[in-house]
Amino acid sequence: MVNTFYTKENKPFPNNPLPVLYYPKVLANLIDEPDPAHSVLDLFEKNGYKNGWVNGIFSYHHFHSNTHEVLACIAGEATVQLGGPDTQSYSFSEGDVLLLPAGVAHKRVAASPDFKIVGAYPEGLEPDMQKGGAENYESIKQAITAVQLPKKDPAEGANGSLSNHWV
């Protein structure tokens, strides 16, 4: 089951009319693997999400205007704020996946000491780093609308939830 979270423009964070997709515990079976990071990276790559990494989530609001981003929690838990300041925060824990549309601001509010995630991008795009202070806000908003939809769902593949929610 996938939950959807909608973000509204929250200047200087454009966000996106596409919903954030939250997949609770969808990768719980991979957390028990000997190397969960490698297992999740393999799954994402199989579904077209490359340029993967293992780390955490920045403690400041940021977004990417040129690509969507998938995040999978492989250890611990965190509270993540979506959409910029004065917006709702969500719990994110082992086995959960977040698919963030381009432009959606996100930030780690709090985390357990062992919090670790895997991240990747459709088609292996190199993300830009936007912190909401750009002078060219309108052109950034236009760039976000030009980002192509991914071909597959990062966690569920070709016939996954993405095709039901991002149309």
Task: Summarize, please.
The chain is α+β, with helices and mostly antiparallel strands and 167 residues long. Helix content is 17%, strand content 29%. The protein has one domain: Jelly Rolls (Sandwich).
How would you portray this structure in words?
With 167 residues, this protein is of the alpha+beta class. It has a single domain (3-128), classed as Jelly Rolls, CATH 2.60.120. 17% of the residues lie in helices and 29% in strands. It contains four helices and nine strands. The strands form two sheets. The protein has a six-stranded antiparallel sheet with strand order 1-2-7-4-9-3, covered by helices on one side. A three-stranded antiparallel sheet has the order 6-5-8, with no helix packed on it. It starts with a strand and ends with a helix.
Q: How far do the termini sit from each other?
A: 18 Å
- The CATH superfamily appears as Jelly Rolls
| Helix percentage range | 10-25%
Strand count, sense and barrel status of the largest sheet are: 6 strands, antiparallel
Helix and strand content put the structural class at alpha+beta
**Tell me, what is the CATH class?**
Mainly Beta
Please tally the helical runs, counting DSSP H or I stretches of 4 or more residues: 4
State the strand order across the main sheet: 1-2-7-4-9-3
Average of per-residue pLDDT values: 96
Count of strand segments:
9
Outline, from the CA principal axes?
globular
Domain count? 1
CATH topology label: Jelly Rolls
Radius of gyration: 15 Å
Could you say what the CATH architecture is?
Sandwich
Indicate the low-confidence ranges by residue numbers: none
Oligomer: single chain
SSE ordering: EEHHEEEEEEEHH
SS strand fraction: 25-35%
